Amino acid sequence: MEHDDAAPTRAQFAAWLREQIIRKGFALGERGEQARFARYAGIPSGTLSRLLAGTAAPDIGTLRRIATALDIPFGLVLLRAGIATEDDLNVTSRAVNESPLTPERAADELGIHEPAARRAFIASVEALRTPPAESG
């Protein structure tokens, strides 16, 4: 049985999805554009119609195809659909544009502080990351 709070989430997702599809360049008010986006995204047009009407709960596969078609991060689509929360996705723990994880920072985050252990850890990581030299 569905909860009463499911309808507002669906309606909010429907409004957000409509806005994103229009931003992508599909004129949803024009005949055939909704079906054209459905084909572009690889989802059934009936499914898209129900999502835009706010009458259907999206499944993960559909959301993934929508994210790909709209060139939007999958996690954001999950958030907007009410499937996941920021805590679920650990969105707030790292900045989106954070620099890549270095062996040194990994050692810090893993609590490897003893100098010899730290050197061994970093050397191991570097050895795994460095492609082997080609033999001639």
End-to-end gap = 67 Å
Question: How do the SSEs run, as a string of H and E?
Answer: HHHHHHHH
Q: What do the pLDDT scores average to? A: 82
Tally of DSSP helical segments: 8
Helix content: 55-70%
- The strand count comes to 0
Molecular shape: elongated
Largest beta-sheet details: none
List segments where confidence is low: pLDDT < 50 over at least 5 consecutive residues.
none
* Proportion of beta-strand residues: under 5%
Return the structural class: mainly alpha
* Rg over alpha carbons: 22 Å
Written overview of the protein:
By secondary structure, the chain is mainly α. Helix content is 60%, strand content 0%. The chain has 8 helices and no strands. Helix 2 (33-41) crosses helix 3 and helix 4 (60-70) crosses helix 5. The longest helix is centred in the N-terminal third of the chain and has 18 residues, at 6-23. The termini are far apart.
